[in-house]
Design goal:
Length: about 150
């Protein structure tokens, strides 16, 4: 009888710990997705200062045209861009975590105005985030356009 009680106690303790761990992981994933949305808003506004807070010093970016940029180049491109984002939205996002690293995949849709011309683009993205001193920072991003 003691053995059965011990096993029941062990199972309930493990289930409680698993539930607590799952809740923490869900909160961290939600936090990362909120940072993805903050990135979209900052980029739509051309706010390179806000982006600085999201990007690690070693950040690298591969754009949908194949161009490669480090953090200073990416921030400079955001500042000097003549195109204006009317909309940037992510969908079908998934967060894959392993300890202090997270990979976010998803689809982005953007509506961009360059002078009087409006262009709609849709593509896939992969962002890699690291947790550094309790803060999540993006270290790598890659975008690929999808055929219409």
């Amino acid at each position: 009888m003691r053995t059965i009680a011990y096993v029941c106690l062990l199972i309930s303790t493990c289930a409680a710990l698993y539930g607590q761990r799952q809740s923490i992981e869900d909160n961290e994933s939600a936090r990362i997705l909120a940072l993805e949305n903050a990135w979209n808003q900052a980029q739509a506004r051309g706010d390179s200062h806000a982006l600085e807070l999201l990007l690690a010093p070693s950040f690298v970016y591969t754009d949908d045209d194949g161009s490669f940029m480090d953090r200073p180049s990416f921030l400079a491109q955001v500042e000097r861009s003549r195109q204006r984002y009317e909309q940037i939205v992510n969908e079908d996002q998934a967060v894959y975590r392993h300890k202090d690293v997270a990979v976010v995949t998803g689809i982005y849709r953007e509506k961009v105005r360059l002078k009087a011309k409006v262009t709609m683009r849709r593509g896939r993205f992969t962002d890699t985030w690291i947790k550094d001193h309790r803060e999540w920072l993006c270290i790598a991003s890659q975008a690929t356009l999808m055929a219409r």
